[in-house]
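Input record (one chain):
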Amino acid sequence: MGDNHFQEAHNSNDINFTQKQRYRVITGAFNDKVTANQIAAEIKERYGLTVYVIPEQVKRSSSSL
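The corresponding structure, as predicted from the sequence alone:
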């Protein structure tokens, strides 16, 4: 599905688009993986949501080379 599903839903029928729209909740970034995992476990246990812990992509500035 992915991005192609979104594009198809958007182009096929704008009236039905809001019925197919999905939203993602991003809670924030944490300083270490242990803390992130603790928060993820609490969210999963408390609210029953599927939770993913993924590394944040950090771009280095060209001045740090």
